[in-house]
Each structure stands twice: as structure tokens, then as C-alpha cells.
Write a structure and sequence with these properties.
The protein is α/β, with parallel strands linked by helices. The protein is about 15% helix and about 25% strand. The chain has helices at about 5-15, 85-95, 130-135, 195-200; strands at about 20-25, 45, 50-55, 75-80, 100, 105-110, 115, 140, 155, 170, 175-180, 185-190, 205-210.
Length: about 210
């Protein structure tokens, strides 16, 4: 059975390592904060100027002044610090963030990422995505394997405007896990009950099954 959003977030959380500074993108990636493995101490960073984010609050814990870059209410930790967005992007552009977990509309077999706009639809701007994929040490994408129309999102070439070229290291979809390096795209893990044939049916990109 394919993974749901929480399953994907839980799998993405396995990529966290003790001592990491991590940025979580809007959408499914924000759920990763709820699945940090026991014994792993990571510090979550938000582009809007917060270092040390806690999990989403229960209803009686909501503070409307505490939000992440996606405008979702969050909690703080005893070590949380606050600063300007300029300082926040200084951390990102300076290479001080170990891992970024982002959503995507399309990813190419070469690791190109498109995740910020669809031509003809109004958007507020690229936000921090371009800086995140250029400045962090490793990029993991978490997304549904196909669009709501059933179109593949893992492609030979992205058709949407790019956020970055050759920047994606790992992709976690509802069907499985892929890695991308100099040798190409590899399928390294399948969701329970999913076959390589199921993945082939919903994938345009060329990949090697390495299970």
C-alpha cells in the first residue's frame, strides 16, 4: 500500500542525523518535525528568522506569534533564538544548513527541481527555495509520485520553471525512495506492497532499480 503524507514525513525523518541544522519546506516536509527519531537532536531553521522550532502545537498551546515560513503555528524550544530574515538567509547562503527537505512539482532524472510556480497562476514569488537548494549541503524532496491528474512528476526534463539545476540528492514519494548522483537516478526503497512495475507505470524518468 503506498505511503500517505505522514508515512512520507516519517521516512524523511530517517535522513536526519544528530547535530544537524535542518530547513523544512512548506507542505509535507513540515510534518517531519513530528517524527524526529528518538535520541536524534536536530535544530530546525525557518527562513522567517527562527532557529530551534518545536513540533506543531496542540490547540491549547497555539501562539499566533509563533509561525514558520509557511505561516503555520509552531512551538518553541528552550534553546530557540530569533533574528531577522537577512540573518536567516545568511545562514543558508553561507552553507550552515546541513539538510533541506522540500516539496516539488517536478524533478528530473538529473536532479533538476521545479517547485515554485506554474505559468499562468499567480504566485507571491520564489521565496527561499532558490537559496535553499543552492546553499544547503543536501536536498531531499518529498512529494506525491504523480500529479492529481495522474501525470508523472519524475521526468526526463522538467517542464516548469526551475528552482535549481542538479540540486536534488534524494526523492521520497508515496511509492518509494530514489537517490540521484553522477550515475543517475536509482530506486532504492519501495513502499509496502508497491512493485517496481507500479513505479514504472507512473514514472517518465529513467531510473535503475537498486533494491
Amino acid at each position: 500500500m503506498p505511503w500517505d503524507r505522514n508515512d512520507m514525513a516519517r521516512r524523511a525523518a530517517q535522513e536526519l542525523q544528530d547535530g544537524f541544522y535542518v530547513n523544512l519546506g512548506i507542505g509535507i516536509p513540515t510534518l517531519v518535525a513530528n517524527y524526529i527519531p528518538e535520541g536524534v537532536d536536530v535544530t530546525l531553521q525557518s527562513e522567517n528568522g527562527m532557529l530551534g522550532m518545536g513540533p506543531f502545537p496542540y490547540d491549547d498551546e497555539v501562539d499566533p506569534d509563533l509561525i514558520n515560513a509557511g505561516k503555520q503555528t509552531i512551538t518553541e524550544l528552550r534553546r530557540t533564538s530569533y533574528f531577522s530574515s537577512a540573518d536567516s538567509f545568511g545562514m543558508i547562503r553561507g552553507g550552515h544548513i546541513d539538510l533541506s527537505i522540500l516539496g516539488a512539482m517536478e524533478v528530473s532524472e538529473k536532479g533538476d527541481l521545479a517547485n515554485w510556480m506554474i505559468p499562468g497562476k499567480m504566485v507571491k514569488g520564489m521565496g527561499g527555495a532558490m537559496d535553499l537548494v543552492a546553499g544547503v549541503k543536501r536536498v531531499v524532496v518529498v512529494m506525491d509520485h504523480a500529479s492529481k491528474k495522474g501525470d508523472p512528476k519524475l521526468l526526463h526534463e522538467c517542464s516548469l520553471p526551475l528552482t535549481g539545476q542538479g540540486v536534488v540528492d534524494m526523492i521520497i514519494t508515496n511509492l518509494g525512495v530514489f537517490t540521484i548522483d553522477e550515475s543517475g537516478m536509482k530506486l532504492v526503497e519501495l513502499a509496502p506492497g508497491v512493485t517496481v512495475g507500479d513505479v514504472n507505470e507512473q514514472t517518465e524518468a529513467t531510473f535503475e532499480a537498486s533494491l
